[in-house]
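[SOLVED] Need 3D model of a two-part complex

Original post:
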Amino acid sequence: MQDIVNKSDDKKTPYEIARNCRHYAMCKIDFLGSGVCDSGPEKHFVSFYPQGRMILYEALAGNKISVTEKCIEIADSCNLCGKCDYQCYFLNEMRPTKVMEALKNHVQTYIKNGGKIKLSKDDFLLAEIKKIVGENWASNDEAITVTYSHDLSAISDPKVPDYVVMPNTKEEISSLVKLFNKNKITYTIRGNGQNLLGFAINEGAIIDLNRMKTIEFDEKNWLVKVRPGVTAFDLQKQAQKRGYRINASEPAALLCANIMCSGIMSTFSTTYGINADNFINAEFVDHSGSLFDLNEISSPNLYSYKNLEHKDSPGICVSASIRLHPVTDDEKGILVPFETLNNALDFIKDCSIRHIGLALGIVGAEYISTFLSPTKKMASEIKNIFVDKLNIPWLVVVIGDKYAIRSISEMGFPFFDQNLFKSLYLGLPSLKTAQWLDLVKELSDDEPYSYLKVKSFAELFETALSPSPRLYSQEVDKELSPFFEKLFSHQEMTDLVWLNMYRIMSTRLGRKKPFLPALIYLPIDKDLINDFTDKFRLIAEKHGIDNDFGFITPIDNGKRCIFEYDFFYDYNDPDEIQRIRQVAMESNMLIDDYSVKTGTVKGHPYVLYQGFCRKENLLYS
Amino acid sequence: MAGKTKPVIALTGATGFLGSHLMATMLAKGYSIIVFGRPAKNESLKERISRLLKWFGIGSFLDQVKCIDADFSQDNLGIENGEYSRLCSVVDSVIHCASDTSFSENKREKVMAANVNNLKGILEFSKNAHISFFHYISTAYVAGTGVSFCKEILSSAKSFTNVYEESKAAAENLISMFCQKNSITLSIIRPSIVYGDSQSGRSLKFNALYFPIRSAQSIRDIYLNDLSNNGGIKAAKNGIYIDNDGYLFLPLKIYLPYEGDLNIIPVDYFVNATIKIIENCSQGGIYHLTNNLPTTMKIVAKYYEQLMKVRGVEIIYGPQPDNLLRNPAEELFDRFIEPYRPYLSDNRVFDRTNTILATDNLNPPKFTYEIFKTCMEYAIKVNWGASIFA
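Solution:
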């Protein structure tokens, strides 16, 4: 099984590639500006996006389903344009086009050989559903339903729903809920399936909210009202066009779903906050199908917080009024290196207390090398260079205006500014063979990273690395390198502010293997954080699971932070699935222990469906 | 000592630069050596010593070495009681070579711990073993700042160039008091800056003299790459080009505060002189292993230009003008050589009276271009140490 994980895509069979789809839904957003699969925005069902076709092909090739009417439509709707290769290779070093070709061949061969096409029939319930949402927006065809059997949580057992429904209004959702209640049908709400706990898959009916993409700006009130099908990426893009920023999590995550599940968090949470800090109001369809508005006095108090695992959902969030934040034209990103986690923790705490920087986050060498490197192989080489040659096991990402950056400089911390970062990023291939790195390390003997304070180091660094989009693109598959060269000539691809706003790189963390994060809210207490880090590592090692430090972002003026620790696993290996489940259980028990012991630690599972709560209720109650 | 059985020597720092060269020659001379040291991350002490002896071409001498895992910060050096007593009964002399050679003020605590605080263990061992001789490898630079004539006496300096010098001066005084109290004959051996073997160029360490050369070579290679592969735009901006003779013209003005010398000795001289002192001086004493024909940075710069096919290096004595515009190469080079700057133009003169007597007037060679070339070619061959054991 390990061989398949490490095999490059040109050596993998289409079935092996399909089985390794990460289900991140990133192919549903145009994060590279190269466009998305044409049929997706037209048909809306995930089945018409590359992710859906990967799952469909896996099901067909694995003889889990037969060829159906929709199956033919889905296969035919792919024009083999190759856009999915750009996107998926960028994130996961995968080439889905091979799977798309195999899907088309499979269907054509089946038809050519006289295979019987399975016709789906509308049962009573489907007919009723279609009366609500229209003929095209509900299906029980296996080719559609099977593509909803997976979500981001690869440790949950896949479940194929009976129906998939795509409503377009809150009234339609209300009617659907009433219909399902009346007929005792389980229903599950799905955004883009970004749930880490498997709550976006189920039997019964899946209500896919992806048609509801309306965005209404209310600039005089610094608000934007979004329907539940709007992704973080698309909203950020619209906000940026108008000169604003929103606090956004993963780019493919739908904002309403994101708030609903656990609240929005990002490195910008340092100043923009978490949970109820991010919105003003929201509308819901409750479990009886009735509508309510969060700001009505009679509405359930979703601002409160209860320390309960798996609290019931308050209903379906059908719109949210998200806060807009101002942007200044002098914002820049920097990377501040540290030799120890403790020093990095002192730094972010100090910055947070002093209100220095808009966004702050500690990342380890694994994280940063994975984000910056276009391939797995290179990520591993670069990680070693960061740790062994540059002596940079830790970096703090800071986004701030010129006053914040000046303050950090005055605090005496050497850093990679935007220009140095760009040289480093586009010059990564040269870094692998740079003999002079040994000297740079020795230069740090007296004062760590003091070379960064040498005025013209940036120029020499640039001369030494010869950074360019062409150099960087030489590392990727030959036929994709012209695209990557053009892509990396775009200014935003190397702009730390843009990269932190849109977070398109974070999915690369799952490139080697999918990952399961442990997320905790806790004080910036060095002993506590080191304890967690050590114990998470020991738990993972005990079960033979790859693991690494994720990130830490300070929140609420440095009183607390969000800490992510990641566990990596191969979800096609049943044994590894068992072991990761064990790791998840033991990690949660560890968090529970500390929660009781300290009274200041909160584990992520306890926030589920409480994303609307006030952060004060979550952090301090 | 001729004709007598060689004494059993306990040696610390045998895996370091000076200690390893000393160990190799002493083994070849028939000494039995007990090495007190520590294992590395993935290598036992014996494996480390074995690797070093192979590098010296005397792998078969491993039988003459006994390797003892020792922790100088622990009581009894962290050695089990029985073994400790047994060692005490066989050791005749101690050569204490182990040292933290960092100049960094940031590492003060670590340097002082290694070079001063941790002496206690090895001194107690020397007392318990009733040894006759304690030989301490120090540095010629313990006399401190502001001294122009350095005598072969203990230092009473209060001000030093860096924490390394300070720690070695403190250690000399501490050892001296201890040896006096316990009737142990002490010799303090003070080498200046040591480079590789003057005949073969071989060396295990590539700091000190090597560091400025390596820095300049790295900067040269960065611009050569720019000229060869990127059209030389950055090079041209800084007035860097390849001249008609095929030499790289790379302006590199190096400011040194005043005219002075660079006192360097080859490791073969260090080893031969040290062994002579150990074998000849039954009364002990302090010995400066320095060069009475010191070189200068101007000479080294010329050697560098010739070997690396570079022009444009200028050594300027005197204060650096205010608001001087420096090119990136100069700015980085300045930073690279900063810790070594006090040794690059040095006016100190070293008294060698004791040394001349003890070593039968053995002198280090004058630093010629041939020696420079041999040493630097070896350094480049082994990639400044990175592939030395490859």
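Edit: Chain A has a mean pLDDT of 93.
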